[in-house]
Amino acid sequence: MARLKITRASGEVVLHISPVVEVAFEKYTGKGIHKQFRDEERQTDIYFLAHNCLQRVEVIPPFGDEFLNTLISVEVLDDDDPKG
Questions:
Q1: What is the pTM assigned to this prediction?
Q2: What confidence tens digit (pLDDT) does each residue in 24-80 have?
């Protein structure tokens, strides 16, 4: 399973993904997560995943500009990526 590397404006780096986040993403897009990334990956999808991950462990603003302003970057890491 790939993971997200979420770098926040505070400098904090969070690595996260879970089955429940993947299922929520598939409900949001109407497609399997791997198919969506292969065929139509959009940055909005990546940021939605980051929001979904973080909202499961802390209270954060709703998905939108206020939340996006708390991020520096979000990267999708493969299981064997040495960065994560």
A1: 0.83
A2: 989 988 988 888 878 887 899 899 999 999 999 999 999 999 999 999 999 988 765
